[in-house]
Request: fold
Amino acid sequence: MKDFKGKTAVITGAGNGFGAEFAKECAAREMKLVLADIDLADLQKTKELVAGMGAEVVAVVTDVSIYEEVEKLAKTAVDTFGSVDLLFNNAGVVVPGPIWEIPAKDFDWIMSVNVNGIFYGLRAFIPIMLKQDTPCHIVNTASVAGLLSTPGMVAYHTSKHASVSLSETTYLSLQAQNSKIKMSVFCPGFVQTDLHHSDRHRPERFAITPEEPYFQSASYKAGLERARHVIETGIPIDSIGMSVFTAIEDEKFYILTHPQYHPIIGKRVKTILEGENPSINF
Ligand SMILES: NC(=O)c1ccc[n+]([C@@H]2O[C@H](COP(=O)([O-])OP(=O)(O)OC[C@H]3O[C@@H](n4cnc5c(N)ncnc54)[C@H](O)[C@@H]3O)[C@@H](O)[C@H]2O)c1
Reply:
């Protein structure tokens, strides 16, 4: 996709971080915007920002972990602007903590948002794009955590490996249909966003309740601290929008932003092919 002016983009997780950045890039290219986020106040901030840049924009409070809400988002986009040309399945959360200690509902929460949320976006929007039969593009935000494995953030890695596979298999399925829909999977390393405050975006059914001792535990607090540290010491977000749009224009599937991880990804593949066991010594 090279032509953006006047086309419609839908962005989930648009209230903060990458989603807000993608919204600004779309507005700069004179696209119409459908912004979605679970957080009304944050969504409103991004809406005002891009409206101030002259964009036609509609904001829809959406929990991507609920299929009916994503279907409603798709319907609003088509009813408002008549088409959907660019989709960012971007909303995501991080849950720290050892896998043998985190509450099962935390694992369910991360999978519902990071994996089901992307599936719901693909399921709701691809039929619209197929029917249009025009050049379209979908960017799924995964992470470099979906291309390698480390002992920290096990639930997060698991969700991101799943979202890379969901993206690859969908891309191949669309290719097998000779579809005009192109796709990318965005796999950044650590970038300065609001991701370490994911807890404030927990849907009610995954809420922390006072009777759960885990959330008072040292390992939970240490996990939060680790997440804060890696996000706050990540790269600044400014260059990200441009890298992603260049990849969309070039129809590049894998979008990687941190070359320092390439040897570790290579080592993982070599380990598998040479029949070795995973090691914490990268
Ligand atoms: N920041 C990083 O270092 C980094 C690295 C790799 C991948 N990612 C991924 O990037 C994506 C965006 O995260 P970010 O870093 O911009 O974080 P962020 O917290 O700044 O933004 C995420 C947005 O998603 C929204 N959100 C959370 N749950 C939602 C739900 N159920 N439905 C709809 N919206 C929801 C939040 O309200 C927030 O506005 C995530 O998928 C994250 O895993 C981030």
Q: What stands out?
A: The pocket of nicotinamide-adenine-dinucleotide is lined by residues 12-13, 15-19, 37-39, 42, 62-65, 90-93, 113, 141, 143, 188, 190-191, 193-195, 198, 201, 203, 231, 234 (CB under 6 Å).
